[in-house]
Amino acid sequence: MPRNENWTEAQPIVALHDVHKSFGTFEVLKGIDIEVMKGEVVCIIGPSGSGKSTLIRTINGLTPVSKGSVKVEGIEVHDAKLDKLALRRKVGIVFQQYNLFPHRTVLENVMMAPLLVLKENRSEVEARARTLLEKVKLRDKEDAYPAELSGGQQQRVAIARSLCMRPDVMLFDEVTAALDPETVKEVLMTIKDLATDGMTCMLVTHEMGFAREISDRVYFTDAGRIVESGPPAQIFDAPQDPRTQEFLSKVL
Ligand code: ADP
Ligand code: MG
């Protein structure tokens, strides 16, 4: 992605303005406004089907918008002329399904995108991959194959793989939803460490305790709209909108 000389850290690193998205005649996003500053951690909560995944996917260009603007570091993501590859390098995304390459080792999985997509120098990528595996506490598993790891370990490899592209923003879409309960915590700890290190993070999560602990701000979505947003203490202890109150009464 071209550097935007006009963007400074005093401006949002991610900015969605009046984002609409329809699939056919079904409007999934009905005017979303979100601004995230560099280093902030933002959680998006809300009922299933409210548009959370669609919203997250507009930020790295995976889902085109029908109307509105999505900017990363001041650059319009949905500009047809934008280099999508460069955008996906800048904005990492991790999903519920980790989709590691089964016939590649952990280390090879982490190295693959920078080597094959960005054509970076192998020894530099390898050094970085090892540092990242250390960070996600899997340095001793670098020669293992994905099937030899637990779900939580595989998800940590997926996070390291995404980080190996050196993103400026990380998106997490329900990354613990498919994991055994005993491995959820280690993945949440990994994300917490990243956030503590200053990574800008946007998370869709059903882990309300974690959202409360980690977020600078929480957005509650329902039926394609942001119903309410604020600091976690406000959203969780004193939600204003009846839809937020009802959702939280079911999940807390
Ligand atoms: P959430 O992540 O909050 O559960 P999603 O963003 O996945 O919500 O989906 C919101 C709505 O959009 C759902 O009703 C879903 O069926 C619909 N939807 C999502 N992706 C598509 C698609 N590619 N085509 C048609 N409908 C879709
Ligand atoms: Mg979803």
Automatic annotation (TrEMBL):
Classification via Pfam families: ABC_tran (PF00005)
Key words, A-Z: Amino-acid transport, ATP-binding, Cell membrane, Membrane, Nucleotide-binding, Transport
Domain ABC transporter, first and last residues per copy: 14-248
One CC-aspect GO term: plasma membrane
Stretch forming the signal peptide: none
Gene Ontology MF term list: ABC-type amino acid transporter activity; ATP binding; ATP hydrolysis activity
Compartmental location: Cell membrane
Top-level taxonomic group: Bacteria
SMART domains reported in the protein's UniProt record: AAA
Membrane topology: Peripheral membrane protein
Family: Belongs to the ABC transporter superfamily.
Name under which the protein is recorded: Peptide ABC transporter ATP-binding protein
